[in-house]
Design a protein that fits this description.
Largest sheet: 4 strands, mixed
Structural class: alpha/beta
Distance between the termini: 25 Å
Strand content: 5-15%
Order of helices and strands: HHEHEHHHHEEHEHE
Radius of gyration: 21 Å
Length: 272
């Protein structure tokens, strides 16, 4: 075994430790206070992304609960390197967003197709005029319902739209991400409404929650409860990418779920 193999687990635990995370958060808060800046949350919105539509619909409630400054950025889809099987990824994202909407009490219906880009200049105008939180949700729903009328775009407006998206893409890459429906706050990223409670917890920890509010907009799912054995359980097909950090996070819970319910877990190995 090489020295690198021996040291990597130690280095990884150090880099990903809770203690290091809390120190980084405390430093970010001290620097914010020293600069007398607000709690600034950057929102990266991809108009033809269903997860972005869900997140956009939740923004007014988020701003009503927390004293934050929202900075919107309209971005393009992820590069091909991050979406090697784009057609199936896009199709599944619509189905997944519909399920998430039902779970969280939001509104989204998969129309079975991607929306037209007719509202893109309007979304960008809302972002640059300070009305993004108010208008992004309704505009997103209108796009997905096909109720945004198409209109010719002036050359100057088209150039401004392209410049905004290019600058937003560059900022997203510089900060270290590649997806839409993401929020960035003081060095950390939060993707979609189902991870919003992590941002809420952090804002609560720094005292940004407005008086009269409590809890989370979308509370996290409860931990695995007491065993509930099933008479004839169907197998769990667990699609595993050994290089994926999400696999590392979820694997213990998947096998624990199988143990508690008596359900066999079948490993399905996939490429990164």
């Amino acid at each position: 075994m090489s020295l690198r193999s021996l040291l990597m687990p130690v280095v990884s635990r150090r880099i990903l430790s809770r203690e290091r995370l809390l120190k980084a958060r405390a430093k970010a808060e001290r620097e914010r206070l020293a600069r007398r800046e607000p709690h600034r949350v950057h929102c990266f919105h991809q108009p033809d992304d269903p997860y972005s539509a869900l997140l956009a619909s939740a923004l007014p409630a988020l701003l009503a609960r927390y004293d934050v400054e929202l900075v919107p950025h309209v971005v393009s889809p992820p590069a091909d390197a991050a979406a090697p099987d784009r057609a199936r990824l896009v199709a599944y994202s619509r189905q997944d967003a519909q399920r998430l909407a039902a779970h969280h009490g939001l509104v989204f219906t998969d129309p079975g197709r991607q929306p037209e880009a007719a509202a893109l200049p309007v979304v960008i105008d809302a972002a640059t005029q300070g009305r993004f939180a108010e208008l992004a949700g309704p505009l997103s729903m209108a796009m997905w319902q096909g109720s945004v009328p198409s209109a010719p775009i002036a050359e100057a407006a088209a150039a401004a739209t392209a410049a905004h998206v290019q600058a937003s893409d560059a900022l997203r890459q510089r900060l270290g991400h590649y997806l839409g429906a993401t929020l960035y706050y003081a060095g950390e990223w939060y993707w979609g409404p189902d991870r919003l409670h992590h941002l809420e917890q952090r804002l609560q920890d720094v005292g940004a929650q407005r008086p009269g509010t409590q809890g989370f907009m979308f509370p996290p799912s409860v931990d695995l409860a007491a065993p509930v054995a099933l008479a004839d359980p169907p197998p769990i097909d667990f699609f595993v990418s050994l290089r994926s950090p999400y696999t590392a996070i979820v694997a213990p819970r998947v096998f624990e779920l199988g143990r508690l319910t008596g359900t066999p877990v079948r490993l399905r190995y996939v490429l990164p």
